[in-house]
Amino acid sequence: MDFIILAEESVTGTNTLTPFQPQLDAGTMFLYAGIVISVVFAVLFIMYACISIASKIIAKLPSGEKKAEPAPAAPAPAAAAPVAEEEFSSGTLKLKGCDEKTAAMIMAIVSDTEQIPLSELVFKSITLVENK
C-alpha cells in the first residue's frame, strides 16, 4: 500500500499523507500578525484599566492609621549657641519657665555629657522644674 501512495505522489506531485497544507501569501500573514498584535495590546490595555480602577478603589478605603493633627503654632525658637561656619536650625524649641541663657547652658551640658555634637541633637522643649 505504501508503494501505491509513493507512486501517486511522484505522478501527481501532491502529498496525500497530509491533507491540509495551507499556503499563505504575504497579505494574509500581515493580517494575522496585525490581529495577534491587536489582541496583545487589547489585553494589556484591559490589565492597565483594571489596575487603575483597583488602585483608585484602594486609595479611597479608610486606612487603619489615624492622621496626626498638625500642632498649633509654636512660639519663636530660642537662640542656640551661634555656629560660625553656617546657619543651623533644628526646628523649634519650647521654653517653659526658663530663659534663653539657661536653655543654652542645658543644651551645651547635654551635648558635652553625651559626647554628641550639638548640631546632631534636637531639643523639643525645656521645662524648668522647681524643687519643693
Describe this structure in words.
The protein has 132 residues and is mainly alpha-helical. The chain has two domains: 21-59; 74-132, no CATH class. Helix content is 46%, strand content 5%. It contains three helices and two strands; from the N terminus they run H-H-E-H-E. The chain has helices spanning 2-12, 26-60, 100-114, and strands at 94-96, 125-127. The chain has a two-stranded parallel sheet with strand order 1-2. The protein is rod-shaped. It starts with a helix and ends in a 5-residue tail after the last strand. The relative contact order is 0.08. The model has no long low-confidence stretch (mean pLDDT 77).
Q: What distance separates the N and C termini?
A: 121 Å
Number of H- or I-type helical stretches? 3
Secondary structure class reads mainly alpha
Please tell me how large the radius of gyration is: 41 Å
> What's the main sheet like?
2 strands, parallel
Strand content: under 5%
Give helix % range: 40-55%
Topology as a string of helices (H) and strands (E): HHEHE
Mean pLDDT: 77
Low-pLDDT sequence parts: none
User: Which term fits the overall shape?
Assistant: rod-shaped
Number of domains: 2
How many beta-strand segments? 2
